[in-house]
Write a structure and sequence with these properties.
With about 250 residues, the protein is mainly alpha-helical. It has helices at about 10-15, 20-25, 50-60, 100-115, 120-135, 145-155, 165-170, 175-185, 185-195, 200-210, 220-240, 245-250, and strands at about 45-50, 65-70, 75, 80, 95. The N and C termini lie far apart (about 50 Å).
C-alpha cells in the first residue's frame, strides 16, 4: 500500500461509523489507535481490499484500504463490484453492472445461509466443489456472463490475456455455484440422488440437467462420472449431517 489512512477520528466523521467498528474492520487504522479494546475477529473473516467505491463514498479519499470481511461476501451489493475471491488488488475488483445476476446470486447466497443455517450451507459448498470443478472441465455452459467479464478484463489490459484463475472466471460461475449449493440443501433431492433404484436415480439426474444444462450432452464416462459424483456428494452431505443412510451409501460406493 502506497499510503495509510492516519486519522481515525476524521474517518469516523466522514463515514458516520463508530471508532470500534472502523478499528475492527479497517486494518490500516488499527495502528492509529492501539489502546482501543478491539473484539476478536471471527474465524470466517479474511483480510482483503475494501470496495474501492465504498472507500471513496465513506472517506472522500481514493486511498486503498484493507478490511476484515466475511469470507463468503464476494460482492459489494451497493456498488456492484466483485470484491472477494481471487481479487488481490483494488483495481482487480470487477464491475458487475452488466451482469446483475451475479449481484443477485450474492443476495440469494446470504438468504440461504439465514434460512438453512451456516453449518448446512458450509457443508454443501465444500462437498459440491469437486462436482463444480468437474462440470467446468466437461463444457459446462456459463451463458454470456463469462464472455462479458472476459471482454471487460481485456479492455482494461488488451496486451495481456486474462489469467484463467483471475476473478472474472470465478465471478462468471458464481450464480451457478449458488444454485448448485441450493439444490443440495434439499433433503428430498438428496434422497433421490442416493437411491439405489435406477429409475429414481435417473429422475434425480434429469432434474439436475434441468437446472444445470451443459454446452454439449455428456457422453460415455462423463455421464457415469456425473451420476456417481452426484450420488456420492449427496451421501457425503448426509454423512456429515450424521445421517446413517449417508454412511451406508458411501461404504457401498
Amino acid at each position: 500500500m502506497e499510503s495509510r489512512l492516519t486519522s481515525l477520528d476524521t474517518l469516523c466523521i466522514l463515514s458516520g461509523q463508530s471508532r470500534q467498528h472502523l478499528a475492527r474492520t479497517i486494518s490500516d487504522l488499527q495502528a492509529d489507535d492501539r489502546s482501543l479494546d478491539r473484539p476478536a475477529i471471527p474465524d470466517d473473516h479474511v483480510l482483503r481490499w475494501a470496495c474501492r467505491r465504498c472507500v471513496v463514498a465513506r472517506t472522500g479519499a481514493t486511498l486503498p484500504a484493507q478490511i476484515w470481511a466475511p469470507i463468503h461476501d464476494n460482492v459489494c451489493i451497493r456498488h456492484k463490484l466483485w470484491v472477494g475471491q481471487h481479487v488481490h488488488a483494488p483495481e482487480q475488483q470487477l464491475d458487475l453492472s452488466r451482469t446483475p445476476d451475479i449481484v443477485r446470486a450474492q443476495q440469494r447466497y446470504w438468504r440461504l445461509r439465514r434460512h438453512h443455517g451456516p453449518a448446512l450451507i458450509d457443508i454443501c459448498q465444500d462437498v459440491t466443489t469437486r462436482l463444480w470443478t468437474g462440470l467446468a472441465h466437461r463444457h459446462y455452459r456459463l451463458v454470456r456472463r463469462a464472455e462479458i467479464l472476459h471482454d471487460l478484463v481485456r479492455a482494461k489490459g488488451p496486451e495481456v490475456e486474462p489469467d484463467m484463475k483471475a476473478p472474472w472466471l470465478t465471478a462468471a460461475g458464481f450464480p451457478e455455484r449458488v444454485a448448485l449449493i441450493h439444490m443440495f440443501t434439499s433433503p428430498r433431492w438428496r434422497k433421490l440422488a442416493m437411491s439405489d433404484d435406477f429409475y429414481v436415480s435417473i429422475d434425480s439426474i434429469a432434474e439436475f440437467h434441468q437446472r444445470f444444462p451443459t454446452g454439449s450432452p455428456l457422453r460415455g464416462t462423463s455421464r457415469i462420472w456425473l451420476t456417481k459424483t452426484v450420488k456420492s456428494s449427496a451421501a457425503e452431505i448426509e454423512y456429515r449431517l450424521g445421517n446413517p443412510e449417508g454412511i451406508a451409501t458411501l461404504i457401498a460406493n
